[in-house]
Amino acid sequence: MNIDDCKLIKFKEFADPHGNLVAIEGVKDVPFNIKRLFYIYDILSDVVRGKHANRKSEFILICLNGSCKVDLFDGINTKTIKLECNTEGLYIPKMVWKDMYAFSRDCVLLCLSNEYYDADEYIRDKEEYIKEVS
After folding, report:
1. Which of 34, 78, 101, 112 could in theory staple to 26 by disulfide, Cβ–Cβ 3.0 to 4.6 A?
2. Is 18 noted as a catalytic residue in this protein?
3. Whether the Cβ atoms of residue 8 and residue 85 lie closer than 8 Å to each other
4. Are 52 and 97 within 8 A, CB to CB?
5. CA angle, 39 as apex, 34 and 43 as ends, to 5°?
6. Per residue in 75-111, pLDDT tens?
7. Residue 34: helix, strand or coil by DSSP?
């Protein structure tokens, strides 16, 4: 995969006098069946999360509250995306390196994945990652 496959997906928002709702369905609204979701919060502003690529997992990152930045790297090209809208998600295909940082104090970052957690499919060494994608 390459950096051009990473894209922001706008989700439908339903608003009425009672409040707002965003519904996300696997395969319909995101390009995969959702097998896992997790979220991170209370992250110190100087912490970098992620720092890995995945051999099988694809992700959608949604900033439910606050903001953060995501650096993406495909072995050659880089791209930085700022997440700050809870009605859009950043699609990250497999084999793209990701670093999340510059978290606002109130940031809640939701992650949707097409795979169950498997530590063996994570590449946590950037040099090893560059060798694999070369």
Report:
1. 34
2. no
3. no
4. yes
5. 155
6. 999 999 999 999 999 999 999 999 999 999 999 999 9
7. coil
